[in-house]
Amino acid sequence: MVTMVTAVVGWCLCLAVCHVRGSYIPVEMNKTIQNLLGHYTITNKELFDGKPIFSKEPLSGNLQAEMIYMSAILQTYDKILNQMLKELPTPGPTTAQSSGDKGTAELRSQLNYILKKITNLRIQHYNKPEQLLKMLQPLREVQFNNTVIQSKALWELIKVYREASSLPNKLEKRRRRRRRQTQMSIRGH
Hints:
Keywords: Cytokine, Glycoprotein, Secreted, Signal
Protein name: Interferon gamma
GO molecular function: cytokine activity; type II interferon receptor binding
Structural class: mainly alpha
Family: Belongs to the type II (or gamma) interferon family.
Number of strands: 0
Region (Disordered): 169-189
Distance between the termini: 65 Å
């Protein structure tokens, strides 16, 4: 428990101190993820088993490939969150809501909020044709209905969302640098 609290405090501190333009987690989203982690709990052994759901190793350094890969990761999160929503009990009659129904409604609302944020990010910055994602078949094989995968995905979401929101800025900076270099070489000759 102390380890989990330390990790959460560390994430919050990192988010507060390391705010970079275009690379941030909205405060409400961070709170919502923390609330969801309170419901979707797994053991530390399952969480820290050394097998992250989304590995980024083979694509490091190639921003175009990272954009495509991140697009596939965001689509995978879309599927995971939709599966989590499907697994929630259906709401009962509104006249006799129990505290369990209210908790389920709150979970549903929180999952929908996170799903909306992921969808908006994907549509705004990662709207790539489906054929580019065919090479990323392993992401499609993620077990969306596995509670360990769901909880680990929530733990990794802050890091993934931060990376996803910063990649478009990196690409834009690279384009500007190339334009400047091209203009400088044209002027120099």
